[in-house]
Write a structure and sequence with these properties.
Elements (H helix, E strand, L loop, with lengths): L1 E2 L8 H4 L7 H7 L3 E3 L2 E2 L5 H10 L22 H7 L3 E6 L8 H7 L4 E3 L20 H14 L4 E6 L24 H23 L9 E5 L19 E4 L7 E3 L3 E2 L3 H8 L21 E5 L2 E5 L3 E5 L4 E6 L5 H24 L6
Parallel strand pairs: 1-7, 2-9, 3-10, 4-5, 4-6
Antiparallel strand pairs: 2-8, 7-8, 11-12, 12-13, 13-14
């Protein structure tokens, strides 16, 4: 589940800021594998969707998936899982063609795709229209599709209610005076989205497939419209892997990014299929780093520092430790540029597998 704008700052189990709007997610984090050093590859939803499903981050000079990248070869997690007998379901809470996500679902090999038009309304929102959909309706719709799916299954949901302009949740779920473009409005929709997640998990826990299912929750990107986050925090996102029959609670400090999600899924399922992209399973990482960026820069984050680059010049860099910082930053810079060049060339030369 890729959740719109779920910033760690607002999630008590990650930010410890006592907003009190994410009790259900906090419960999952406190009973699952809680990854504390996980990062979005970029600042936009499309980049998070792309990286999570393909292991390919945004690269300067290349289009996003859905806008031209699909013409290149890259691993297709939907195809891989379907070949292993999985029924694959992709849905987003927004309308089917929003963000060209329908093209992304096809490009990544999913068998079934759903959007807002397919989801029956369940709550009374006082006649409001939502551009980005209703998280409660989308999560309950996902539950219904998983109930009817052939086992085993793989489902992917991109939520949207926490995107501005913020809808009024109503239904007793507003904790603050609401404003459609205010922090209070965001907190109200985050509380609504978290409540929806709690209802989804309560329903899922009663399903016969629950004990054999792994739930992965993360965000599409960090969110700093009302707070100012510096690097590398502005890329920080929550990640929780929840499967109470398989994992006990643990805080995991492994550094990773959305590019590691698909390889991690295959690893968890015991699928040894080659997945040649930037990502590596979070359970198999020897070289811990996160590759991040935007349309004008790329960056690398490790446990010892971070560095951002325009491909022409170093833009910002910091070593977390004073000793030999210049030497370490120089090595980080070479590594970052090498990763970018190799990944770029593999994509434009169609050398990524499947």
């Amino acid at each position: 589940m890729l959740m719109e704008s779920w910033s760690p700052f607002y999630i008590d189990s990650f930010g410890n800021n006592n907003f009190g709007v994410t009790p259900n997610f906090d419960r999952l984090a406190n009973n699952g594998l809680q990854f504390t050093n996980f990062y979005a590859v970029g600042q936009r939803s499309i980049e998070g969707i792309q990286a999570s499903l393909t292991g390919v981050p945004l690269l300067i000079g290349l289009p996003n998936l859905g806008f031209g990248l699909e013409a290149s070869n890259f691993p297709k997690i939907g195809n891989i899982l379907r070949e292993k007998g999985y029924e694959t379901i992709f849905m987003q809470s927004s309308r089917r063609r929003s963000f060209r996500v329908d093209a992304i679902a096809r490009a990544t090999g999913f068998e079934y795709y759903y959007g807002m038009e397919d989801m029956p309304m369940l709550l009374d929102y006082s006649g409001q229209k939502s551009v980005f959909g209703w998280d409660y309706e989308s999560m309950i719709f996902l539950k219904s599709k998983l109930d009817g799916a052939k086992k085993p299954f793989f489902g992917f949901l991109f939520t949207g209610s926490t995107h501005t302009p913020y809808i009024r949740p109503g239904n007793g779920l507003e904790k603050f005076p609401h404003g459609e473009n205010s922090e209070n409005g965001f907190l109200n929709t985050l509380h609504y989205s978290d409540w929806s997640l709690g209802q989804f998990m309560k329903a899922a826990a009663a399903a016969p497939w629950f004990d054999d299912t792994i739930f992965i929750f993360t965000a599409d990107h960090n969110f700093d419209a009302f707070r100012t986050f510096q690097n590398p925090e502005r890329f920080h996102t929550p990640l929780v892997i929840y499967a109470p029959k398989l994992f006990k609670h643990q805080k995991v400090s492994t550094i990773g990014s959305q590019a590691d999600i698909a390889p991690t899924v295959l690893d968890l399922l015991g699928i040894k299929e080659s997945f040649t992209t930037l990502g590596v399973s979070l359970f198999q990482k020897n070289d811990e780093f996160a590759f991040v960026g935007d349309k004008n820069s790329i960056g690398i984050i490790t446990d010892r520092g971070y560095l951002y680059h325009s491909l022409g010049n170093r833009l910002e860099a910091r070593s977390f430790y004073g000793e030999n910082s210049d030497d370490y930053l120089n090595r980080m810079e070479k590594k970052l540029l090498a990763i970018d060049q190799v990944t770029y060339e593999m994509i434009v030369k169609n050398q990524l597998e499947r």
